[in-house]
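If you are new to this repository, start here. Below is one unmodified record pulled from the training split, so you can see the exact layout before writing a loader.
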Amino acid sequence: MLLLGLAPAAHGGNRTGRIFTGDRSGDFLFAALHRGGFAAQPTSISRDDGQRLTDCFISAAVRCAPPANRPAPSERDNCLPWASAELTLLDRLRVIVCLGGFAWDAALRLHTLVGSPPPRPRPRFGHGSEWSAERWTLLGCYHPSQQNTFTGKLTPAMIDAVLGRARALAET
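And here is the target side for that same chain:
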């Protein structure tokens, strides 16, 4: 499974060197990954904290923390080949969990970038959305940002359900 996010957070992954590490989004995400059996421990505070992922890789569509957390189209386009190169290394990849609409769009662009035709009609993002292609299945999940977790738009039960579905798809 690949968890695809937007970009490293300025005060989280950009600071610590590990995506979703050292910020509240990461606290929420790693707790869920641990509950789902994908992470060795429920927290991720630094690169050398002993955290280990199993059957899971975390990446971002954009490689640098963008101003105001809104990447420009040029940033998105310049970073897409890096994500594509990572995909070639993940030869057992079966599921991409897209953390937010930006990641969903990036995953659809990656699908086309690796030589597959663009999907018609274009699948829409939503929490729990699912779209299957020949190489992998995309699952939509609201991003674990504080805006979503503090307001209840994304709850632990909701992310657990998406990760459970991802595990089921990955094992088929």
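Two things worth knowing about this chain: The chain has a mean pLDDT of 87. The first helix runs from residue 13 to 16.
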